[in-house]
Design a protein that fits this description.
Distance between the termini: 97 Å
Number of helices: 19
Number of strands: 36
Shape: globular
Largest sheet: 9 strands, antiparallel
Structural class: alpha+beta
Low-confidence stretches: 1-13, 31-83, 130-135
Strand content: 25-35%
Radius of gyration: 31 Å
Oligomer: single chain
Length: about 700
Amino acid sequence: WNARAGGGSKARISAMQLVLLLAAASLLAGEALAFAPALSGLGSASLQAKLRPASGPSALAGRSPLPTARAGRSVLPLSNLRATAAAEVEVDYDSIKIDNVRNCAIIAHVDHGKTTLVDKMLDACKESSDVDDGGDRAMDSMDLERERGITIMSKVTSMTWNGIKLNIVDTPGHADFGGEVERVMSIVDGVCLLVDATEGPMAQTKFVLMKALARGIKPLVVINKVDRDTTRVEDVETEVFDLMVNLGATDEQLDYSTIYASGRNGFATTEWPAKKTDNMNDLLDCIVDTIPKPTVLDRPEFSMVVTMIEYDSFLGRICTGRITSGEVKTGDAIQCLDQASTKIESGRCTKVMARKGQGKVELSSARAGDIVQVCGLAKATVGHTISSPDITEALDAPAIDPPTLCMTFCPNDSPLAGKDKKSTKLTSQMIKERLLTECENNIGITVSPSEDRSEAFDVMGRGELQLGILLENMRREGFELGVCPPRVLFQKDDSGSKLEPIEEVVVECDDEFSGAVISKLSDRKGVMMNMGPAAEAGRTRITLEVPTRGLLGYRTIFFTDTRGSGILTRAFKGFEPYKGDLANIRKGVLVSMRSGDTSLYSLGKLQARGELFVDPGVEVYPGMIIGEHSRDNDLEVNPIEAKQLTNMRAAGSDDKVNLPPPRAFSLEEMIPYMQPDEMVEVTPSTMRLRKANLDGKKKK
């Protein structure tokens, strides 16, 4: 157009006027805009604001709609144009009002798509969700999270939609990290409950929903993965409603909204399959409409409970939480109170920040109801109250379910201690400082000095996966230590009777394997509560209640029994009367009686005795476990014996030794495999099973 008109300034003005005129006609007619490239060059945010259709009759209503877009030109649908305008409305985080803030947590069972959904919400709100390795799952920032594909720690971010600031908290879905879910419930006013459209509500779904309902929160139900071929949307809707009724939801909580979504494909809709969309607008609009504005204390003094902490080499300790009352500014005097209202320290607020997308935004001030990060205190930790100096009473911290398992961490005392070149932290003092640091940030972990071993520490948590993640992090940081087997933490009721933790277990497997699963769990004091067909043909879904001690070491057996096709999930249910002693559920082990490197000749003779854990050429020492015995008793063996050289020849003396691959253990598999008289030697490079008492004679 400019070239045809001679390229003058008048031609450019008339071209812009023509674009505006055609845009208004297209929007009124509800047609797609065929001139998106022109709009992008004229300043999309300001121009699209001018192009919104006005109410009332228009002089252009009688004009015919625009013709079909020319070949090679992109078409911008009306819904996408409105979404772009909603996402690009500027929100000043410094002056945001409480009415324009929504605090929401994403809760669900493991692998139901929480983190992927948050990625798509960030994209819809034009926030960066790029990660360093080019992958997805922007909220999974830890190395172990990205390696294992699970969320371990709760994380908060924010985005803007239609002028509303959305503080979104991504939570773990595994039962062992349930404490992460419990602590974030105190900083949000609503939750998005994600449910897989095929699997339906699972064990952890019930746990997280129960915590939300107990706080009086009305959930927004999101049925995810509706685009899969195996979906059963109507049945899942019914199961969610029945679950809420069984958990004692009020009439108001039962009047919840439902969104149908696909996090992977990035769409959400209020009706399925009648209304199909290609964006997340319906979900974001529903969060804004259904999640209530934050409730705050009506007082001018600043106060907030610390929910998460992190460290920065320049800023020091960064405390994250929701402001309960008042306002905080950079330079204000602040103090830290523990849960007993005892003053821990005082200082000045050096910086106030808010998370936004993948980054942080520095604020000059923040008001009650918003989730922010405060710097300036060195001793504040999770559960403490940060407040103005005038406050004398601490805020209530969220109650957390007690731990169910305990393991003892101690310095490594094996003959190979300190020989790993990557080991940099070996002393009990270093181990103690690291464990206390973990307690400050991880509310589900508790540490105390051990009563049975000197220079050792009892670490209490929710499950072997949580404790295994802690050990793996310490191993990568250069720690070398010994770990004793997990033991269940019992309680007593008012009459003095022993109570033990019980977990709800949901198993899905092929029909042919259901008998073996039920038999094995029954031997471990499990009680079957329900059994029926699964969503997929030929598979059975079984619900059981099993003691926590009965589940230790069962996961490997389960995958063996189901040929790797089974799905096992678990969630803490509560404490119930002791179910009785368990029978011996593991065979004995092969224990080395010599020091040196294992030989192919010796291992070839030992393979008939059981399953081996080591390859030839591995350094061993007396008391180290090198395999599992085929019988119930332990057997001391010599794995370093070499073949004697001789000039004599005999038939069969030079037969080739064929060794099967040794059984490989992950750290999470080693932990429940141990018996009470055994332990694991953990170093940055390797892990070894061994006897706690290396002197076989003393053991006998």
